[in-house]
Design goal:
Strand 1 and strand 2 form a beta hairpin. The longest helix is centred in the last third of the chain and has 42 residues. The chain has a two-stranded antiparallel sheet with strand order 1-2. It is 61% helix and 3% strand. The chain contains 6 helices and 2 strands, in the order ααββαααα. By secondary structure, it is mostly helical.
């Protein structure tokens, strides 16, 4: 017999409110979750792993509907392996694009922090405006069209 955990134990261990775990159950996110004769949820390691994946998917930006699609595929078992494989490869690709955008955003924020640190130290923006260019952080910006007289 495998070890089971109460909703309180899982809530504490994963730092997720019990209400969220109940919500996941209500949405059928945990297709294999068992309940005692009196209706008490009994989480096993597979349920806990599923909750961790759900939390990962949320952090990756998936909607509730998209997570439901995953848990429905999960409930289908081996019949949905190829669909789940494709699902996660697509999520990964989307996340890489978001991560790249976030890294570019961080570079701009770092630049502006350094810019204002130097301007504050100098007591003016005059020197940093001459010596620091945002294009050094974002070099591959498309060139703006030149205005030609009509």
């Amino acid at each position: 017999m495998s070890t089971t955990y109460t909703i309180g134990q899982v809530s504490t261990a994963l730092n997720i409110p019990s209400s969220t775990l109940r919500y996941y159950d209500k949405l059928h996110f945990l297709p294999h979750l068992k309940k005692s004769a009196s209706g008490i949820r009994q989480f096993d390691q597979a349920d806990i792993d599923t909750i961790r994946i759900i939390e990962c998917l949320k952090l990756a930006g998936l909607s509730i509907k998209e997570i439901q699609q995953f848990t429905q595929m999960l409930a289908e078992g081996d019949a949905s392996l190829a669909k789940r494989q494709q699902f996660f490869h697509q999520i990964r690709q989307n996340f890489i694009q978001k991560l790249t955008q976030m890294q570019q955003t961080l570079a701009v924020l770092d630049f502006k922090c350094a810019y204002y640190d130097q301007a504050a130290a100098d007591g003016t923006e005059a020197l940093v405006q001459k010596n620091m260019s945002l294009s050094s952080v974002i070099p591959d910006q498309p060139a703006l069209p030149t205005n030609s007289p009509t």
